[in-house]
Amino acid sequence: MQIDRRTLLAASAMSALPLIGAKAQAPSLKIGVLTDLSGPYKDLAGPVAVQCVSQALEDFGAAAKGLKVEVISADHQNKPDVGAGIAAQWYDRDGVDLIVEVANSGVALAVANVAKQKNKVYINSGAATSDLTAEQCNANTIHWVYDTYMLAKSTGGALAKSGGNSWFFVTADYAFGKALQRDTTGFVEANGGKVLGSVAYPFPGTTDFSSLLLQAQSSGAKVLGLCNAGTDTINSIKQAKEFGLTMTIAGLLLFISDVHSLGLEVAQGIAVTDSFYWDANTRTRAFSERLKPKAPNVRATMVQAGVYSSVLHWLKVAAAAGVPVMKGSGTDVVERLKAMPTDDDCFGPGSIRVDGRKIHPSYLWQIKKPSESKGPWDYYKLVATTPADEAFRPLNLGHCALVKS
Questions:
Q1: 23-32: per-residue pLDDT in tens?
Q2: For position 154, which CATH number holds?
Q3: What does pTM read for this prediction?
């Protein structure tokens, strides 16, 4: 597999964060943040995800606990071959012990396969496909924040139950969009609804959704299901509002960064599933205050919060197990990660299942009207909570080979 010059520059130009508590010597542990630094998922992951790793190191007190950690980052350009090539180089040549993030399902599936081949550790926060803990699960990968099953159950299921019984999907034509449409269709049909049609569009690169939205409107469906994310979702919603689309818009994956870009005048009333909201409780607010000096003009998305949470958990295991163990067998490290309960300010107490699925509650929010908001980033009001043991696909339905019947 060839990595082009641009990719190599991207991998090297995003320099390592300063060593925390280390002298000018080779670090004992190394984390690679593989993310979208320049494309449609930049705001929901990107540079703030890298800062969240730094925040985890700071909050954990890595230096005080004797852990020397270096952090590097690179842009996968939303290309599976590029992401897989960088992952292999990091594991083989650069001594990376953990890869985190990867906000693209196609790239994530490719990186998970590399982690398996190299017997290293990959913790996904940004990619949504539930296939990472289904037929394509492996013993080297953990899926942290959310997935297409969780989104479909919370948003799709809620809308179907409340009268949204006919749907039309506009879908990004790659692993994430297909999985989200598939999982949402299951919940719509389980609640007596019907899918009247769908249209897939090339990803990345599509900016004009007008013809797709007209197809949706002409279908007669009550609900427009947007199986996309980032700038694609923003553009879809803006154009739907400009055209005066009369359908209910289901932003099946809508991040707080998207809401901020849209503005409340446009986004008000849309239902959002999110497992992290900066203003949800005292712990999430405390994390957000600590992160503010590093990212002063934004609030973390659930992807970025997931990077913080996953790295913090990995550091706890590293402190308990020791550096030699963390640099050894990836499957052994993942078993240790699964064995230790999770707990942090972003998601509260949780656990990691045998299939690699990180478990915590999910929340259905409604975007506030402008008159309801007290200021910037005050965007959500809670509609419903799905408990941790119900939020994700049951173990027996995923067909993961790690689950013994």
A1: 445 459 999 9
A2: 3.40.50.2300
A3: 0.91
